[in-house]
Every structure is written in structure tokens, then in C-alpha cells.
Amino acid sequence: MAIESQLARRSICQLETIGRRTGKPHLIDIWFAADPARDRIYFLSGGRDGADWLLNLRRQPSVRVRIADRWFGGRASEIEDGPDDGLARRLLGAKYQAWTPGRRLSSWARNSLPVAVDLLEGGAQE
Q1: What is the DSSP string of 43-74?
Q2: Which of 27, 73, 76, 115 could be 43's S-S partner, Cβ–Cβ 3.0 to 4.6 Å?
Q3: CA distance 119 to 90
Q4: What's the pLDDT tens digit per position in 106-119?
């Protein structure tokens, strides 16, 4: 279920979490990067622990991601200091011109909290 390249090149996606207080869907527009090797999408929380969407997915890690007109179901996790931390920062930094090879990551790409969403088999919806 790899994300097609034309979808991966889109500038933003929508991330739907379940509100930790309301229990209702909460939809935001957010920058993202798709991992070309597997069914994984990365995000950076510039607000770190203060971002509502991050607090929501801590309570309920099941999320949905909409890229263009395609919906994907997934499970979110924080990946700071994990094996994909650097990859997430590099992919997002390169996509949004906050990093170029041989140069240092921007402070946004360096200091934000990285999050991964593993897309679930059969989780795509039109």
C-alpha cells in the first residue's frame, strides 16, 4: 500500500486525531514526508508537547491521514531518539527546504518532536 509518488510530493496533508477531551474527530493541515521505503509518514511537532494534535494522539494513537482525496488509516507514535528520528528530520527538512546535504538542519527540523504514522493494511479509504 505504498503512497504513490504524486501524493508524497503534495505540500500538505490533513491529520485527523480524536480529541482527548471531546472524543470527536479533530482535523488539521500539516506538513508531512512519506518514507519511500515503507508505508510510513512523518510529521514534526514544532510546538512539541504543547501541540493539541500531539496530545490527542498520545491519548488515542489511531489516526487518519488525508492526502489530496485519499484517506489512510494509521497508528501514530513519537519517535524522538529512536532509529527513525534522524530520517524523519532529514526527509521533512529536505522537503521544506530546511536542510540541504552538507548543511545543518534548520532549528525547526532540529528541535521539533518527530512523529511517525505507520499506515495500516486495508486502512486506505476514498
Answers
A1: EEETTGGG-HHHHHHHH--EEEEEETTEEEEE
A2: 115
A3: 20
A4: 888 889 999 999 99
Residue range of the domain that includes 83: 5-119
Q: How many CB atoms lie within 10 A of CB 62?
A: 15
Number of structural domains found in the chain? 1
Residues 6+ apart with CB under 8 A from 93: 99, 105, 106, 109
pTM of the entire predicted model: 0.89
- For residue 103, give the CATH number of its domain: 2.30.110.10
Beta strands in 1-126 (DSSP E): 13-18, 25-30, 33-34, 40-45, 62-67, 70-78, 113-119
Using CA atoms, how far apart are residues 112 and 48, in angstroms rounded to an integer? 6
Residue 59 falls within a domain, yes or no?
yes
Whether residue 124 is contained in a domain is answered as no
